[in-house]
Amino acid sequence: MYAGLLPGFVIATLGIGAVLVTAMTTALAMVEPAESGLASGVVNTFHEVGGSIGVAVVSTVAASGFEHGSAAGFRDAFTVCAVAAGAGAVVALGLVPRGKPRSTGGPHVH
């Protein structure tokens, strides 16, 4: 039963890594260099808080299926994840600025 979960976990893991890198790159490219620390902190904070809330919600939905003696809670939890991912994609389309990020002239070393 649990072996069927592995492909979804692998895909989610790859997606989470790609999203974090993209979010960090977009946030840092769209702010002034003096504000890059603040932007980095905001992205990391929302990543951690969002992950915590997401795990709490999804595990609660999954656990509600266990109360009735079935694994149907996993299906409901994955549905919640899919809906949240779709909603996040729609919101990102509106929030991510259009255009090409400005060039920084190379890596910054402190």
Q: Your description of this structure?
A:
With 110 residues, the chain is mostly helical. The protein has three helices and no strands. Helix 1 runs antiparallel to helix 2 and helix 2 runs antiparallel to helix 3. The radius of gyration is 18 Å and the shape is elongated. The chain starts with 5 loop residues before the first helix and ends in a 15-residue tail after the last helix.
Radius of gyration equals 18 Å
User: Which structural category fits the helices and strands?
Assistant: mainly alpha
Number of strands: 0
Beta-strand content estimate: under 5%
Per the principal axes of the C-alpha atoms, what is the gross shape?
elongated
Brief summary:
The chain has 110 residues and is mainly α. It has helices spanning 6-29, 36-66, 72-95. Helix 1 (6-29) packs antiparallel against helix 2 (36-66) and helix 2 runs antiparallel to helix 3.
Secondary-structure blueprint:
Blueprint: H1 6-29, H2 36-66, H3 72-95
Helix pairs in contact: 1-2, 2-3
Keywords, separated by commas or semicolons:
0% strand; 72% helix
